[in-house]
Amino acid sequence: MSRRSALGRVRGLGSAREGVGHWWAQRLTAMALVPLTGWFAVSAATLAGADHATVAAWIGSPVVAGLLILLVLATMYHAYLGLQVVIEDYVHHEGWKLALLLFVQAFSILLVLTALLSILTVLF
Amino acid sequence: MLSILHRLTGVALGAGAMLLVYWLAAVAGGPETFDTAQALFGSVPGRLLLFGWTFAFFFHFCNGIRHLFWDAGFGFALPTVYGSGWVVVVASVALTLASWMLGYAMRGGWA
């Protein structure tokens, strides 16, 4: 007869091992991304064909820079959470799953850093 | 069909996000790097890629909103599921075409 509690027996099941916080974070970033990406899509379309000076001036305005920073953060987090689910669903080898997740995490952080540094470079 | 497309477009958008970061870095790098990036994106394969990415974006966007409605508890009746699915597909195509027409209009033509 196992001495584990009922809770101990059910925790950590499934391919991801845990998930409600993940589920909510995904929905939260999704909701934030609806207006953010909508704004970006319209802006990008209106900026089509613009030269460097125009684009740099656009990014260099504080409001746009702030929105872009939010867009980058929300997008990368949302993308990471989504990729995490895809990897957990389709990669069954525990070692490879861990390696891929770590790689995606590291790469996401690298991308966020690059994007933020770029925006800040243009801003200042 | 639509749910796996949601996943596929999501992964594709993730890959495209790398190009967005490249573009931002190109702006930060100055006019030369920017012009190089614009030339890459403006080439025929570049535009095809962007067009596909635009569709992936609008599909994921519309279907994502559909998902958020489900999360809130609405729209589970099967006829509604099919109906909203069609709305998503039509809206995605329409928004893709509209945004590209806007882009070309801003550039003053089909050049």
Which assembly state applies to the chains in this document? Answer: heterodimer
What is the N-to-C order of secondary-structure elements of chain A (H for helix, E for strand)?
Answer: HHHHH
Percentage of helical residues of chain A?
over 70%
Q: What fraction of the residues of chain A are assigned to beta strands by DSSP?
A: under 5%
* Number of beta-strand segments of chain A: 0
Query: How many DSSP helices of chain A?
Result: 5
* Molecular shape of chain B: elongated
- Helical/strand content category of chain B: mainly alpha
Distance between the termini of chain B: 36 Å
What does the largest sheet of chain B look like?
Answer: none
Number of strands of chain B: 0
Largest interface: A-B, 37 and 32 residues
Characteristics of this structure?
heterodimer, A: 124 residues, mainly alpha, B: mainly alpha, 88% helix, 0% strand
Please give a quick description of this structure.
Chain A is 81% helix and 0% strand. Chain A is mainly alpha-helical.
Could you characterize the architecture of this molecule?
The complex is a heterodimer of chains A (about 120) and B (about 110). Chain A is mostly helical and about 120 residues long. Chain A is about 80% helix and about 0% strand. Chain A contains 5 helices and no strands. In chain A, helix 2 packs across helix 4 (about 60-90), helix 3 packs across helix 5 and helix 4 packs antiparallel against helix 5 (about 95-124). Chain A is elongated. Chain A starts with 5 loop residues before the first helix and ends with a helix. Chain B is an all-alpha fold and about 110 residues long. Helices cover about 90% and strands about 0% of the residues of chain B. Chain B is elongated, with a radius of gyration of 17 Å. The model of chain B has no long low-confidence stretch (mean pLDDT about 85). Chain B has 4 helices and no strands. The interface of A and B includes residues 55, 68, 75 and 76 of A.
